[in-house]
């Protein structure tokens, strides 16, 4: 599964707009995003959770990523959510590691 290379890991301009140029607020928002990633990502590939629960986690991650400008994470989370809701385990299985990698790469920028 290839990542979408055109998707930005972290759009700082978007984040700046969302936080009204307040650097302290941006740091706080990014810390909240990192914490949410730490809580959500493990559940995305958890076989103990049903598809619907995992799709809900992907949806939440997608929204958080869109809020901070983490476009690649948002795009992959959206694709994973759609695959899970469609019952497409093959596609979901390929997206899970790509999404985890995108999250790691994005969090490394913080």
Topology:
Blueprint: H1 12-18, H2 23-44, H3 51-68, H4 71-86, H5 89-109
Would you kindly provide a written description of the structure presented here, covering whatever features stand out?
The protein is mostly helical and 110 residues long. The chain has 5 helices and no strands. The protein has helices at 12-18, 23-44, 51-68, 71-86, 89-109. The longest helix is centred in the first third of the chain and has 22 residues, at 23-44. The protein starts with 11 loop residues before the first helix and ends with a helix. The model has no long low-confidence stretch (mean pLDDT 94).
Instruction: Tell me the helix content.
Output: over 70%
Rounded to an integer, what's the Rg over CA atoms?
14 Å
Contiguous uncertain segments of 5+ residues? none
Shape: elongated
% residues in beta strands: under 5%
Count the E strands. 0
The helix count comes to 5
Instruction: Look at the structure and give the mean pLDDT.
Output: 94
């Amino acid at each position: 599964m290839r990542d979408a290379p055109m998707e930005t890991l972290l759009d700082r301009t978007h984040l700046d707009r969302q936080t009204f140029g307040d650097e302290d607020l941006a740091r706080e928002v990014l810390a909240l995003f990192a914490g949410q990633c730490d809580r959500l990502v493990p559940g995305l590939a958890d076989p103990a959770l049903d598809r619907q629960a995992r799709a809900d986690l992907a949806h939440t991650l997608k929204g958080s990523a869109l809020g901070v400008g983490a476009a690649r994470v948002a795009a992959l989370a959206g694709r994973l959510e759609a695959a899970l809701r469609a019952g497409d385990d093959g596609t979901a299985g390929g997206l899970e590691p790509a999404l985890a990698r995108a999250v790691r790469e994005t969090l490394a920028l913080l």
